[in-house]
Q: What sequence folds into this?
């Protein structure tokens, strides 16, 4: 038994696992800022997208079109390499954020998830039956109250599964931030590979951690779905 | 800041390089989409035949690949692929060094990722065909082969086209990750050009515009195909 344990402990995957684990906090740090920020902004953008102000709706539509039509890697590079090459940005206060790969990553991920999230929420908002809003009006609700008590709860509940998909895509997207020298899990795995020349062991260790992270995310979304859909529970 | 005059064709600019890079992106996308669809058909087959082992393998494959970042899959295949191919070759008694070229590795890596998405789309499309159709074909005395090609395939194509269009867009954008392997496609070309000209903004915006064109045009193509394939069905 002890022999078996020592074989495992000396194996490369086991050692790499803990090395990659030290990058987990950086990955989670990226997500902990960009996901909540992305959620709030996506809701606001979705509301702007369905609003009757044509200019606002058009602007947001073209923003969504551009972000969804280009790869995330282009967006990250544009912010990290592109904006950093502009002189007046380097001299402005923005440079305090943009010189850090971490903040470039957060900005790029947020910009990206807002576009996808806004489109998801728009679908949810537009799928609400008119009668629901009308019954709110007949009860004398104001516009804001209808939004807060009727439109948003129903819309968010409806799009939870697809927004959950977007959350998982975001977890995976954090790996791209490693290409801007930010040391999260993929970056560390790559460094290990360069040191040990054992690519498979390094990337499998990282892969297991990402799978675990995504598993937690799926459970979290499942819990939210269970919590906000009490009428769909089989046994109360 | 901007050096868009450097985008002319010929020796003075990067226009022709970007054209070739765009064609390379398209080539990788089309090849890996094709290979991905082939892998997806096998995966779907493994999931729908009543066999626990094949279903487990197929489910394991789709769950793992979809739960792991694309970049990691590409790194794994790019850095680990040669070792795997060489160890397979060793079994057949070939001991020399083998190196797969970048295009092959890129195609395989993107195909492995895109197949997981395609398989979900194809499986849903297959399941939407009612059993009565296949029974009716059997009653007419059609064999398995013609049932597959004359009854199942046309309907699967019609049901799956919108989803396949989405997968194509994802695949097209995923090819940008291939730049880490050194294959010169749009992303890699824009990095090379901006390093030479010291103007990242110019060439990254060029890359963004090229990707935007590719996704928009192919989106239109898929819309047309959808209209064509759903003739006689009210949407």
A:
């Amino acid at each position: 038994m002890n022999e078996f344990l020592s074989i495992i402990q000396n194996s490369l995957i086991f050692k790499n696992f803990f090395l990659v684990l030290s990058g987990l906090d950086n990955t989670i740090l990226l997500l902990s800022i960009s996901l909540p920020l992305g959620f709030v902004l996506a809701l606001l953008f979705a509301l702007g997208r369905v609003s009757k102000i044509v200019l606002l709706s058009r602007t947001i539509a073209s923003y969504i079109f551009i972000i969804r039509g280009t790869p995330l890697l282009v967006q990250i590079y544009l912010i990290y390499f592109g904006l950093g090459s502009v002189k007046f940005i380097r001299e402005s206060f923005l440079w305090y954020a943009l010189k850090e790969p971490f903040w470039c990553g957060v900005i790029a991920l947020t910009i990206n998830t807002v576009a996808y999230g806004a489109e998801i929420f728009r679908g949810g908002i537009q799928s609400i039956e008119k009668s629901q809003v009308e019954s709110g009006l007949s009860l004398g609700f104001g516009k804001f109250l209808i939004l807060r008590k009727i439109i948003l709860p129903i819309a968010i509940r409806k799009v939870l599964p697809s927004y959950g998909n977007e959350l998982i895509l975001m977890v995976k997207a954090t790996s791209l931030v490693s290409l801007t020298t930010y040391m999260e899990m993929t970056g560390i795995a790559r460094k290990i590979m360069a040191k040990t020349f054992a690519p498979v062991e390094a990337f499998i260790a990282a892969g297991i951690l990402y799978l675990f992270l995504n598993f937690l995310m799926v459970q979290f979304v499942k819990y939210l779905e269970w919590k906000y859909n009490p009428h769909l529970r089989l046994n109360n | 800041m901007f050096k868009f005059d450097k985008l002319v064709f010929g020796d003075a600019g990067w226009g022709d390089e970007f054209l070739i890079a765009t064609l390379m992106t398209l080539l990788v996308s089309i090849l890996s989409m094709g290979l991905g669809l082939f892998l997806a058909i096998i995966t779907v087959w493994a999931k729908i035949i009543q066999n626990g082992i094949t279903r487990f393998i197929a489910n394991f494959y789709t769950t793992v690949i979809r739960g792991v970042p694309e970049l990691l899959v590409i790194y794994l295949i790019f850095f680990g692929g040669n070792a795997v191919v060489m160890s397979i070759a060793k079994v057949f008694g070939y001991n020399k060094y083998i190196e797969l070229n970048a295009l092959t590795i890129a195609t395989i890596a993107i195909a492995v990722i895109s197949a997981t998405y395609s398989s979900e789309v194809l499986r849903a499309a297959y399941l939407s065909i009612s059993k009565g159709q296949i029974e009716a074909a059997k009653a007419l005395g059609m064999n398995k082969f013609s049932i597959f090609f004359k009854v199942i395939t046309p309907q699967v194509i019609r049901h799956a086209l919108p989803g396949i269009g989405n997968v194509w867009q994802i695949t097209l954008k995923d090819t940008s990750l291939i730049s880490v392997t050194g294959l010169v496609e749009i992303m890699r070309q824009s990095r090379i050009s901006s390093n030479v000209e010291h103007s990242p903004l110019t060439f990254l915006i060029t890359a963004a515009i090229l990707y935007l064109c590719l996704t928009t045009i192919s989106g239109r193509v898929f819309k047309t195909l959808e209209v064509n394939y759903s003739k006689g069905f009210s949407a």
Q: What stands out?
A: The domain at 9-232 of chain A is CATH 1.10.3720.10 (MetI-like fold).
